[in-house]
Amino acid sequence: MPPNDDEPERPRARRSEDDEDEDRPRSRRRRDEDEDDYDRPRRRRPHPDDDGTGGLIPYKNPKALAAYYCGVFGLISCFLVLGIFGIVPIVLGVKGLKYAKLHPEAKGQAHAIIGIVLGIIEVLSFLAAIVVVIVAVATK
Predict the structure, then answer these.
(1) Phi-psi region for residue 54, left (φ > 0), alpha (ψ -120 to 50) or beta?
(2) Beta-carbon contacts of residue 69 (< 8 Å; ≥ 6 apart)
(3) Using one digit for the tens of pLDDT, what is the confidence trace for 112-128?
(4) I need a surface site. Which of 47, 51, 98, 118 has the fewest CB within 10 A?
(5) Which residues have CB under 8 Å from 74's CB, separation 6+?
(6) b/e per residue 91-115 (b: at least 16 CB within 10 A)
(7) Rounded Cα distance, 111 and 90, in Å
């Protein structure tokens, strides 16, 4: 009976002649793919060094990460006129950059730079607030 184009081919039964050819490598057949299979995204196999974050969180460079968080949350202190705490992300950011240069696999340069920039903004806002207070007191 000729094969029908609508039905997928079934694998043939294993025969005794196949046992004689065990030294010969067998070719692996791929299953017939429907058009729907092309629309589905392929699953990525995890790389052994893949940490699941995709490199977004530099957990191997804790100083850069701490600089980033201190800089972001330190912006709240700008509104409370406590910008002197902006020194912390600057120091941690510089240490994080040095660590990233010594250990390139640690990454975290971007987090360290953002921490430094936010720390500078905090310190400058603190100094501006002090100048505003001094000018206000001097003009009274």
Answers:
(1) left
(2) 115
(3) 999 999 999 999 988 99
(4) 47
(5) 83, 85, 86, 88, 89, 118, 119, 122
(6) ebbbbbbebbeeeeebbbbebbbbb
(7) 11
Report yes or no: 66 and 92 within 8 Å, Cβ to Cβ. yes
Residue type, 132: V
Note the helical H segments in 6-86.
Answer: 16-20, 35-39, 62-79
Please check whether residue 87 is in contact with residue 68, taking contact to mean a CB–CB distance below 8 angstroms: no
A 10 A CB-CB count for 32 gives 8
How many CB atoms lie under 10 A from the CB of residue 24?
Answer: 8
CA 126/CA 85 separation, integer angstroms: 9
Instruction: Please name the amino acid found at residue 58.
Output: P
Tokens 């800089």 belong to: 71
**Could you tell me the sign of the dihedral formed by the alpha carbons of 10, 11, 16, 17, in that order?**
positive
Counting every residue, how long is the chain? Answer: 140
pLDDT digits (tens, 9 = 90+) for 3-59: 566 666 666 666 666 555 556 565 565 555 555 555 666 666 655 555 555 566 667
pTM value is: 0.59
Integer Cα distance of 87 and 62 in angstroms: 17
